[in-house]
Design brief:
With 241 residues, this protein is of the alpha/beta class. 46% of the residues lie in helices and 10% in strands. Helix 1 crosses helix 7 and helix 9 packs across helix 10. The N and C termini lie far apart (64 Å).
C-alpha cells in the first residue's frame, strides 16, 4: 500500500486541507514542506505553529543548494558549438514562465523524497479546478487527490477555515493576495509594491541579488531589473509627497 502524503506549502489552501484531513480522520503518513530559503519569516513561524497544533512532525525539505546559488553562481555551460561544455556565464537569473528552475528543483527534491508509488494530497481549491487538467505529467509519476475540490472549499473558505482556528500568518494575507516566495518574479506589480513598503529588508536583499546577477539578469516581471522597479516605486513615493 502506497503512502499518503500531504503536499504542504504552508499557505491558506494547504493548511485548510491538512487541518480538515486530520479532523476527518484521513490517513496521513507524511507531511512535507519545501523550504526554498525565500520564504517570508511569518511563513516559517506558521509552519512551527501548525506542527504544534496538530502534534505531528512536518518534514522540511531543502534545495540541494541555496536558490541564490542557482540564480547567481551556478556555472552555465554552452550546449552546442565549438565551445560546447565551456562555462560562458554564471547564474540562471530570476525565474520566469520560461525559466522556472526554482519549480524544477522543488519538484525534483519532493519526488526524490516521496517516491513514485505514493499518493499525494494536493491543495487545489474548488475555484482552481482548471489546475487539475494541467497535471498530466505529474499524474503519470504519482497518484493525486484533491480534497478541497471534493469538499467544495474555495480559497476564501480556506482562509476563513484557518482564521477560525487561530492561524493568521501574522497578517500576511491582509497585505498580500497570495503568499509564496517573497521575491517571486511572477507576482503582480501591486504585490511587489507592497513588499517594498512592508518589508524593506527583504526588498534590499532582492536589490542586492539583482545587481549580483550581472549578465544573467534577464529581467523581473516585465521590467529590466529590480533596480528599475526601485526607480519606479521611488518616483511614485515622491509624487505622493
Amino acid at each position: 500500500m502506497s503512502d499518503k502524503i500531504v503536499s504542504f506549502s504552508g499557505g491558506k489552501d494547504s493548511t485548510a486541507m491538512l487541518l480538515r484531513l486530520i479532523y476527518e480522520g484521513a490517513r496521513i503518513d507524511r507531511i512535507i514542506f519545501f523550504d526554498t530559503g525565500w520564504e517570508f519569516p511569518e511563513m516559517l513561524q506558521h509552519i512551527k505553529q501548525v506542527e504544534e497544533y496538530i502534534n505531528r512532525p512536518i518534514t522540511i525539505l531543502h534545495p540541494r543548494r541555496p536558490f541564490t546559488y542557482w540564480a547567481i553562481e551556478r556555472p552555465i555551460k554552452r550546449k552546442s558549438g565549438p565551445d560546447r561544455g565551456q562555462v560562458y556565464r554564471h547564474g540562471c537569473g530570476w525565474p520566469s514562465h520560461m525559466r522556472r528552475w526554482c519549480t524544477r528543483e522543488k519538484v525534483q527534491q519532493i519526488d526524490k523524497h516521496c517516491g513514485h508509488i505514493a499518493t499525494r494530497y494536493i491543495g487545489y481549491s474548488a475555484d482552481e479546478l482548471h489546475r487539475t487538467g494541467k497535471s498530466t505529467l505529474e499524474a503519470k509519476r504519482y497518484k493525486r487527490e484533491y480534497p478541497l475540490i471534493k469538499w467544495g472549499m474555495t480559497e476564501q473558505d480556506c482562509l476563513e477555515y484557518c482564521y477560525d482556528r487561530g492561524f493568521t500568518w501574522s497578517g500576511l494575507y491582509e497585505k498580500f493576495r497570495r503568499v509564496s516566495c517573497f521575491c517571486c518574479p511572477l507576482q503582480r506589480i501591486g504585490e511587489l509594491r507592497k513588499l517594498r513598503a512592508y518589508y524593506p529588508d527583504l526588498w534590499g536583499k532582492m536589490l542586492k541579488w539583482d545587481k549580483a546577477m550581472g549578465e544573467s539578469n534577464k529581467g523581473f516581471r516585465g521590467y529590466d531589473t529590480v533596480q528599475d522597479l526601485e526607480k519606479r516605486f521611488s518616483k511614485e513615493t515622491l509624487v505622493l509627497f
